[in-house]
Specification:
The protein has helices at residues 13-24, 70-78, 112-122, 127-148, 156-162, 164-169, 174-180, 185-191, 195-198, 207-220, 228-242, 284-290, 299-307, 325-328, 343-349, 398-417, 433-440, 458-462, 487-510; strands at 2-4, 6-9, 29-32, 44-47, 50-53, 59-60, 85-88, 90-97, 103-109, 222-225, 246-248, 253-259, 262-268, 271-275, 278-280, 313-321, 334-337, 359-363, 377-385, 425-431, 474-476. The protein has 511 residues and is of the alpha/beta class. It folds into 2 domains: 2-84 and 226-309 and 449-510, FAD/NAD(P)-binding domain (3-Layer(bba) Sandwich); 86-223 and 310-440, Polyamine Oxidase, Chain A, domain 2.
Length: 511
C-alpha cells in the first residue's frame, strides 16, 4: 500500500491551498480529485467560441503590489504563484429601492476616500459614520489576522487589551453595529449591498465576517485572474507538483480508513492509501453519511451538522454576446439588481423560484477586454436560493423552469439598466442548483457549505478551533471550514487547516 504523510481529498480552492502548504513544508502529500481537472467551482467551460468563467466574480484581499492583501501574500509569496491579474475599477453599481422608499442607481468606487466621498454625495451627512466604520474595520481586520495566525491559541487577554471594540462587536449582527455607528439608513443599505455574496441577511450576518470582506474590497480593490479561475487553479496545481506534491485525477475517495480510532488512510477507486492525516475538502454531511463509520463520529459532531443551515444554492446564467460591451452600452463590471435594498426581504424571496427577483450581473470584458473573441463580450447573471425549491421541479419541467428564470433575469436587467442584450445573445448556458450538486457533490447544490449565521458565524468557528476537529487525524477544509464561504476565505482556510495539521504532526513527533 502506498503511504503518504497526508492525503487531501478534493482539489477545490481549499484543498489545493492546503496541499501547497503541506508540500512547501516538505511533507509527502497526495491530492486526489474525482474530476480530471483541479479547481472545483474555480474552473471554466466552452460553448461555441466562448470560454465562460464558471463562478468567480472577483477576488478580495489580493491588492496591488504596494498594498498587498493576505491573498496576494499567500498565493505569490508563500506558494510562488506568478500569473497575470486584472484590477476591477469600481466596487459595484446597485440599482434598487432603499428601505426609506428612495429609488437609487449608484456606482461605488474603490478606495476609502473615494468610497466615503461618494457615499457623502449620495447620502449627505454620512461621512463621519463612514470614517468611524473604517476605523472599526481596521481593528477587526487586525484582530482576525491575530486569531488566524494563533493556530487556535488566541490569548483572550491580548484580544481584550489590543482589540476592545472588536470584542464588543464580535457577537453582533451587521445591522446592529451599523446602526450603532449612526450610519443613515440609506447609507446602511448601500454599504450592505455585498450581503448577496455571502447569502446571509445582515440581521443574521456577523458584522465581523461582513466587514472583513467589505473592507478588503474597498481598501484594496478586487481582482480577477486574466486567464479565469481555471487558469488560477491550473497554476496552483502546477506549483504544488513542482514543490514535490502528487495529484491523482479521476480518483474518488470512498472511505476514510481508521485504525484504533484514528485515521490510517483513504480507500479510493484507485486503491487504498496509507496516511495518518487526511484533510477532506467536502461537506461534513457527505463525509459522515458515506465515508466514516458511524461509531467513530462523536455524537456532538452529528448534532452539530444537523443543527447547521445549508448555505445558498446558486443559479448562474452565462451569455456570450455578439457585440462588444461598448456597443451595448455596458460600462460597469458588476451590477447588483435586488428588488429591494432590504436584505431580509430579499432573503425571504430567495426561498422560491417563482418569487426570486434578485440577481448580480457581470460583464467580464469591462475589466478584461481580451476574455472573449473580438467584437463580442461575456456576461453572467447569478442568483441564489435559500431553500430546496428546485427539488420540487419535475424532471420533465426542468428545462422549461431554468429557461423561464433566465428570461426573467434578462428582462429585469434590461428594464433596470435600459441596456438591450437579448437580440445579441449568441450562446447561452444555465447552471442550476442541480448542476452544482452534480459537479460538486454538495448537498442540495450548496456552494458555501453552511450559512455563517448567528451561532455558526466565522468568529464562532475561529474561536472554536481547539474543539473543531475531534476525530484524530481528520480535518475539514473548504466552505464548511472555520473561514466560511467565498474564494478568498477558502484559500485562507486551506492554508489554516494545513497549518493545524502540521502542528499535530509536530506534536506527535515530540511524544
Amino acid at each position: 500500500m502506498l503511504s503518504y504523510d497526508v492525503v487531501i481529498v478534493g482539489a477545490g480552492n481549499a484543498g489545493i491551498s492546503a496541499a501547497c502548504t503541506m508540500a512547501k513544508k516538505g511533507k509527502k502529500t497526495l491530492l486526489i480529485e474525482r474530476h480530471n481537472l483541479p479547481g472545483g467551482c474555480a474552473t471554466s467551460f466552452r460553448r461555441g467560441r466562448f470560454e465562460f468563467e464558471t463562478s468567480l466574480h472577483e477576488l478580495c484581499d489580493y491588492g496591488p503590489a504596494d498594498n498587498p492583501g493576505e491573498i496576494r501574500t499567500l498565493l505569490n509569496d508563500e506558494y510562488g504563484l506568478a500569473i497575470d491579474w486584472c484590477e476591477v475599477p469600481d466596487n459595484f453599481r446597485v440599482i434598487s429601492t432603499t428601505r426609506t422608499g428612495r429609488r437609487i442607481d449608484v456606482v461605488m468606487p474603490s478606495g476609502r476616500r473615494a468610497f466615503t466621498d461618494k457615499m457623502e454625495y449620495y447620502v449627505p451627512g454620512s461621512r463621519k459614520a463612514m470614517e468611524d466604520y473604517f476605523a472599526l474595520a481596521d481593528e477587526t481586520d487586525a484582530a482576525l489576522g491575530y486569531i488566524n495566525h494563533s493556530n487556535g491559541k488566541a490569548d483572550p487577554a491580548y484580544l481584550k487589551e489590543h482589540f476592545p471594540n472588536f470584542l464588543r462587536t464580535a457577537a453582533c449582527s451587521t445591522d446592529r453595529v451599523l446602526k450603532a455607528l449612526k450610519l443613515p439608513s440609506d447609507a446602511i443599505d448601500i454599504l450592505n449591498t455585498y450581503w448577496g455574496y455571502l447569502g446571509v441577511p445582515t440581521d443574521k450576518l456577523s458584522f465581523v465576517h461582513y466587514t472583513a470582506m467589505v473592507n478588503k474590497y474597498i481598501s484594496r480593490s478586487a481582482y480577477i485572474p486574466k486567464l479565469t479561475s481555471h487558469g488560477l487553479s491550473l497554476a496552483l496545481a502546477d506549483r504544488f507538483q513542482k514543490m514535490g506534491g502528487e495529484i491523482w485525477y479521476n480518483c474518488e475517495a470512498q472511505k476514510v480508513l481508521f485504525e484504533n480510532g484514528r485515521v490510517s488512510g483513504v480507500s479510493t477507486t484507485q486503491g487504498d492509501i496509507a496516511a495518518r492525516h487526511v484533510i477532506l475538502n467536502c461537506s461534513p454531511h457527505t463525509a459522515y453519511a458515506t465515508m466514516i463509520p458511524r461509531e467513530l463520529i462523536p455524537q456532538r459532531e452529528i448534532k452539530l451538522a444537523n443543527a447547521r443551515t445549508h448555505s445558498a444554492r446558486a443559479y448562474v446564467l452565462y451569455l456570450g454576446l455578439d457585440r462588444t460591451a461598448e456597443e451595448l452600452g455596458i460600462k460597469d463590471y458588476s451590477i447588483f439588481l435586488p428588488d429591494s435594498m432590504d436584505p431580509r426581504a430579499m432573503y425571504n424571496q430567495l426561498a422560491s423560484i417563482k418569487d426570486n427577483n434578485y440577481s448580480i450581473a457581470l460583464c467580464y470584458n469591462v475589466v478584461n477586454p481580451a476574455i472573449s473573441p473580438e467584437g463580442t463580450c461575456l456576461m453572467s447573471f447569478t442568483t441564489i436560493f435559500t431553500e430546496e425549491d428546485w427539488a420540487k421541479v419535475k424532471i420533465q419541467d426542468y428545462v422549461k423552469t431554468k429557461n423561464a428564470v433566465a428570461e426573467r433575469i434578462v428582462d429585469n436587467f434590461e428594464k433596470a439598466t435600459g441596456i438591450k442584450i437579448r437580440d445579441s445573445i449568441e450562446e447561452m448556458a444555465v447552471a442550476t442548483p442541480w448542476t452544482f450538486a452534480r459537479y460538486l457533490n454538495s448537498p442540495q447544490g450548496t456552494i458555501y457549505g453552511y450559512e455563517t449565521n448567528d451561532w455558526d458565524s466565522m468568529m464562532a468557528r475561529m474561536m472554536s478551533l481547539k474543539t473543531m476537529y475531534p476525530i484524530p487525524g481528520l480535518k475539514f477544509a473548504g466552505t464548511s471550514g472555520p473561514r466560511g464561504d467565498g474564494y478568498s476565505s477558502t484559500y485562507v482556510c486551506g492554508n489554516l487547516v494545513a497549518r493545524l495539521t502540521l502542528k499535530d504532526m509536530a506534536d506527535e513527533e515530540d511524544r
